[in-house]
């Protein structure tokens, strides 16, 4: 099985931009630290922050958050795998493997991520249970690096205004260009620190609620779909009025129903038999799908696995066609039943 991470995949534009801006900010901060009186202390503090940030960034990017059960099933393809023993109720048709309930299939990475939180485009990798702590450490120490860089660049701008840069030989000829660079990076660092601070506060909120980013997005979508309480009350009142009117009409039609029960009994029995046949067919199809999934997860070779996948999806398409044909037959039978309004 090929290991997928942020470095093994094709780099995105945001990932390249992140690396470039991160390296430039570190270099500019090291250069500007020379003008400070306590530059040795700043060098030590900044070097520690950069080292820890790089460690968490590399760990988060090169980690493989794929579901452990998916790796196990793909590594030992052809051997028996008891998914009931591991309490696996979900089946991924793209990975052809049983997965945990908290595992989600990422479209960007094309793999099932264990305890899926979100897909981070800045590192071009999924964030899940295996690398979530490293991700939090990465954004936290990157935020501290930006704060330190803001302090250094702010002091460079302050010394330029006080005409103190002329005393330094390194800045005597290029003090204007270094001032412009300091202002530019200070603006970028302020924007980046605000973005990271919001991200840190957001994940602290998720930690307090005990949910992931994916679950937070799903909850927001379901709240937008649900109607307001006022609309529900109005709909209930309107439904009560409709029920009262329909009840009066139903009382008038009871006599007509009793007279025509004998004529329509045969048609109803036919429709009931078709419904029973459909339920039996659905049970049979469910058992067949379970057997097919077991064959797919226990294929001996890649060719047999590909052939099994083709047969699996072709049978699913054929079952959908059969189901639609049965629905058409049922609709034609129900159309023959006389409506009550015809006798009024």
UniProtKB/TrEMBL annotation:
UniProt keyword terms in alphabetical order: Acyltransferase, Membrane, Transferase, Transmembrane, Transmembrane helix
Official protein name in the record: Palmitoyltransferase
Sequence ranges assigned to domain Palmitoyltransferase DHHC in this UniProt record: 88-219
Superkingdom classification of source: Eukaryota
Recorded GO MF terms: protein-cysteine S-palmitoyltransferase activity
Record EC number: 2.3.1.225
Enzyme class, first EC level, given as a word: transferase
Main location: membrane
GO BP terms, alphabetized: protein targeting to membrane
Bilayer topology term: Multi-pass membrane protein
Catalysis: reaction(s): L-cysteinyl-[protein] + hexadecanoyl-CoA = S-hexadecanoyl-L-cysteinyl-[protein] + CoA
Record remark: domains: The DHHC domain is required for palmitoyltransferase activity.
Subcellular localization: Membrane
């Amino acid at each position: 099985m090929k290991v997928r991470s942020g470095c093994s995949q094709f780099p995105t534009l945001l990932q390249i931009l992140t690396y470039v801006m991160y390296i430039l900010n570190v270099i500019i901060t090291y250069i500007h630290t020379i003008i400070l009186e306590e530059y040795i202390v700043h060098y030590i503090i900044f070097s520690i922050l950069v080292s820890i940030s790089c460690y968490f960034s590399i760990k988060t990017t090169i980690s493989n958050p794929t579901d452990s059960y998916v790796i196990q099933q793909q590594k030992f393809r052809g051997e028996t795998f008891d998914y009931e023993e591991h309490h696996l109720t979900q089946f991924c048709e793209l990975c052809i493997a049983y997965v945990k309930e908290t595992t989600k299939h990422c479209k960007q990475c094309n793999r099932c991520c264990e305890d899926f939180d979100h897909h981070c485009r800045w590192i071009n990798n999924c964030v899940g249970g295996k690398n979530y702590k490293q991700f939090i450490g990465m954004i936290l120490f990157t935020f501290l690096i930006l704060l330190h860089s803001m302090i250094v660049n702010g002091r460079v701008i302050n010394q330029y205004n006080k005409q103190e840069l002329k005393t330094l030989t390194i800045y005597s000829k290029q003090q204007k260009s270094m001032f412009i660079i300091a202002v530019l990076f200070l603006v970028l660092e302020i924007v980046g620190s605000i973005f990271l601070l919001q991200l840190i506060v957001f994940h602290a909120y998720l930690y307090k609620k005990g949910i992931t980013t994916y679950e937070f997005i799903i909850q927001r979508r379901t709240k937008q779909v649900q109607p307001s309480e006022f609309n529900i009350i109005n709909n209930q009142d309107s439904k009560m009025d409709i029920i009262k009117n329909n009840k009066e009409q139903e009382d008038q039609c009871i006599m007509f129903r009793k007279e025509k029960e004998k004529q329509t009994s045969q048609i109803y029995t036919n429709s009931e038999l078709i419904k029973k046949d459909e339920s039996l067919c659905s049970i049979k199809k469910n058992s067949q799908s379970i057997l097919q999934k077991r064959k797919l997860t226990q294929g001996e070779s890649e060719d047999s696995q590909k052939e099994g996948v083709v047969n699996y999806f072709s049978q699913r398409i054929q079952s959908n066609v059969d189901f639609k044909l049965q629905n058409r037959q049922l609709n034609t039978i129900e159309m023959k039943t006389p409506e009550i309004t015809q006798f009024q």
